[in-house]
Amino acid sequence: MVHITSPAFKANAARALADAGLQKALDRSKGTSHGKRAAAVAALPEFERLRDIGRDIKNHTLANLDFYLEAYAAQVERAGGTVHWCSTADEARAAVLKICRDKGARTVTKGKSMISEELGINEHLEAHGIEPVETDLGEYILQIRKEPPSHIIGPAFHLNREDWESTFREIHTELPKDRVFHERSDIMAEARTKLRSRFLAADVGITGANFLIAETGSSVIVTNEGNGDLTQTLPKTHIVLASIEKVVPTLEDATSLLRLLARSATGQDFSVYTTFSTGIRREGDLDGPEDYHVVLIDNGRSNMIGTDFQEMLRCIRCAACMNHCPVYGVTGGHAYGWVYPGPMGSVLTPTLIGIDKAGNLPNASTFCGKCESVCPVKIPLPKLMRHWREREFERHLSPQSVRSGLAFWAWFAKRPGLYRMATKLGIGALSLLGRGKGKFTSLPLASGWTAGRDLPVPEPGGTFMARYKAQKAADQRAARR
């Protein structure tokens, strides 16, 4: 399993903020993904209606998940494939290892798959003498750097061009000294010099799945590099790793969601490669596997059905939420300490590893609401993060200082007259103490705030309520004139 550092989110974030290379990479991407998504959405007038359709497809499927999973499995078997039902990560790892051993596999090529990161498939195969080879460009560079992904669709989001070049020069020792990587195509070409032979030598290919189609028994993957196609067609055995919520009822439903996916993820109308895979190679097929296996993984997801967190299972892994998140935008993905970063990870990770380990994540949000506004299937991410905060509070997992502070504030908030008096006195005292300063860099009893940010000195005019009351009275006087 991937080492989990979610409990150390605050320390991780502090290191991220001080990392000049990471900040350069994050700054470079700011605005780019926003602009591309906005342009793609503007070019599709029915996009908002499509979001409603996507939400409804996922809600319907989740309400009938057992039926559609059984229908999907029946179609896979009809097409010559085998379905492995796995309740836990251990069962899924064991299933993959057994398939590989049965085939005598020594080398396995892999398409990008976040569920494989969740399961720690690479580490498990390596521990049993099988070499996994990542074929996605970003995942490939991270594998040779021995780093985990920092983003669910752009795994090497945290790297700059010079990082790629230095890694290639270190690992690809035959690289000419005068070779310069000016463009992404140069990086791609260099990776291909190594990966082509690995594709041809692989005994087994492993891919994830963006969708599973109950109607046809097909798995769907989207890529921009074509590595997914080579991974599932060249080896004799193809393994699909997919979590249970990836199933959708029909081909039409899948295409509706595909219209949302690329636009939300990369600002494309469609990914360069959208590949449907159905069972084993048939007579007359030019390529395809002789053996086709689908490893269906629960790993805690069925426990979300019927709870406050069921809506999280609508996620189609587009990453729009993290692309627009101000917290992710300055900390990057590694700060979140596990596989799923950003707002979606702040909801999903506590479900999978426990709120006791991931309590910092739902608290790492400004609640600006941008994540919900761009989610293609309208997941109310801020609401779900609030639910986790409530669970954390109920289980007494939040720091005592936080709990005491909230209790103190709540006591005043329940007494409106006393609350207004206290805030009026507080505003007055802060205005007096901060006269001529403009801001406080430290304050007694408020070090939790001022340790990470300045506190502006209140402007003249009193509390919000007092100013609102005065403005309302002025508006009424003006209306009477």
Automatic annotation (TrEMBL):
Annotated keywords: 4Fe-4S, Electron transport, Iron, Iron-sulfur, Metal-binding, Repeat, Transport
Gene3D superfamilies, A to Z: Alpha-helical ferredoxin, NagB/RpiA/CoA transferase-like
Keyword hit for Cytoplasm: no
Cross-referenced Pfam families: Fer4_8 (PF13183), LUD_dom (PF02589)
Residues making up the signal peptide according to the UniProt record: none
Domain 4Fe-4S ferredoxin-type: 303-335
Membrane-spanning ranges: none
Keyword Transcription: no
Full protein name: Iron-sulfur cluster-binding protein
High-level lineage: Bacteria, Pseudomonadati, Pseudomonadota, Alphaproteobacteria, Acetobacterales
